[in-house]
Design brief:
The protein is of the alpha/beta class. The chain has one domain: Type I PLP-dependent aspartate aminotransferase-like (Major domain) (Aspartate Aminotransferase, domain 2, 3-Layer(aba) Sandwich). It has 12 helices and 16 strands. The chain has an 8-stranded mixed β-sheet, with helices on both faces. A 3-stranded antiparallel β-sheet has the order 7-6-12, with no helix packed on it. α3 packs across α4, α3 crosses α7 and α9 runs parallel beside α12. The mean pLDDT is 97. The structure holds pyridoxal-5'-phosphate.
Length: 368
């Protein structure tokens, strides 16, 4: 039986050669290859600054620190997301405020953000989940009206667009993940984008143990307490090699996604979450809503097809039980619905149209 995994990282001989070059050079820590990877990422997104970090999680934490968010502050996050979105709020000592999402898009509910804002709210971390861009027009109005920062958890949104502009340009600070579930991956890693040079310098300093930054150079003077969130030359070489193929990788994902949409359209028992208006979805994950999602995963595994849940509903987990550190805002029925019904289908560059037809055939046969 042919095995169809959920994802497959893009690892080529060319990529391996680039990694070996770095290994042979002996320069293994963050250095010129990391700088080149950042430049490459920056020009792809079209943003002012790009900073490579060890993960999306450490990038989000640093973004909160750069904006001076800490104890006494509240930060609003969606319930339907990977825990990292909320973890970082607690890590910097601020209070997590969890709000519901919209069932249609699986993205944060903008009305609920406004209802949850208090004088202590300093930032919102909306998530462009699965590659679906957010409604940045609406978020900008909220930002202006309440004077809060927007930090985008863009973990899954490489290549997504809003009104023709790449995600990574709309929020104060955006953070991408380079985990292997993402189609540009360094194994572990992240990339921060911003238009603000002061914040970029602050983050560059923080991720280098607090070393001073002059122009684009680091000084040997420690200006602040910092940490080590550097991305090594080795991992940057992996990212660089993939960035050279980003257009074809993204085009193939979009082509395969269109094919899934065609194959699924005659099955009313399967719903497809909507793309944000004026947005271009990058289909980091191809998600559907089905009944009997939990039973579907092992049934498909028996057929050697790997399907997975979408992501988590934070309020179902002990880490996010209501407390001084975590406020659950109102009921969360839409997040619960998304959590219980969302199923992610296989999607990667080597998947074929025949594979997709087989996945959909088996999916339909196994519906309750
Ligand atoms: C929405 C979201 N935020 C944050 C993360 C964490 O990313 P990383 O593993 O790069 O820290 C993930 C991981 O999948 C995610 O999906």
């Amino acid at each position: 039986m042919k095995k169809i995994p959920l994802i497959k990282p893009y690892i080529t001989e060319e990529l391996k050669a680039k990694v070996c070059e770095v290994l042979d050079s002996g320069y293994l820590t963050e250095g010129p290859v990391t700088r080149a990877f950042e430049e490459n990422f920056k020009s792809y997104i079209g943003c002012g600054y790009a900073l490579a970090v060890t993960s999306c999680t450490t990038g989000l934490e640093m973004a909160l620190r750069a904006l001076g968010i800490g104890p006494g502050d509240e930060v609003i996050v969606p319930d339907y997301t990977y825990p990292a979105t909320a973890d970082v709020v607690n890590i910097v000592g601020a209070r997590i405020v969890i709000v519901d999402v919209s069932r249609d898009t699986m993205l944060i509910d903008y009305d609920k953000i406004e209802e949850a804002i208090t004088p202590s709210t300093k930032a919102i971390i909306p998530v462009s989940g699965f590659g679906n861009p957010l409604d940045y027009d609406r978020l900008s109005r909220i930002k202006e009206k309440y004077g809060v920062y927007l930090i985008e958890d863009a973990a899954c949104s490489m290549g997504a667009e809003y009104r023709g502009t790449k995600v990574g340009n709309q929020a104060d600070i955006s953070v991408f993940s380079l985990h292997p579930r993402k189609f540009i991956t360094t194994g572990e890693g992240g990339m921060i984008t911003t238009a603000n040079g002061e914040w970029a310098d602050w983050m560059m300093s923080y991720k280098h143990f607090g070393m001073g930054v002059e122009g684009s150079r680091l000084t040997n003077r420690f200006e602040r307490v910092g940490s080590n969130y550097k991305l090594s030359n080795i991992l940057a070489a992996v990212g660089m090699a993939q960035m050279e193929h980003i257009h074809e990788l993204l085009d193939r994902r979009l082509e395969l996604s269109k094919n899934y949409l065609g194959l699924l359209k005659d099955h009313p028992e399967i719903a497809i979450p909507q793309t944000t208006r004026h947005g271009k979805h990058s289909r980091q994950s191809f998600c559907i809503y089905v009944k009997g999602r939990d039973e579907m995963i092992p049934k498909m595994a028996d057929l050697s097809i790997e399907v997975q849940i979408g992501t988590y509903a934070l309020h179902l987990h002990p880490a996010f039980a209501p407390s001084e550190d975590c406020r659950i805002f109102g009921a969360l029925p839409e997040s619960l619905y998304a959590f219980e019904h969302c199923l992610t289908l296989p999607l990667y560059h080597e998947l074929t149209e025949d594979d997709q037809a087989y996945v959909v055939e088996k999916l339909v046969q196994n519906l309750p």
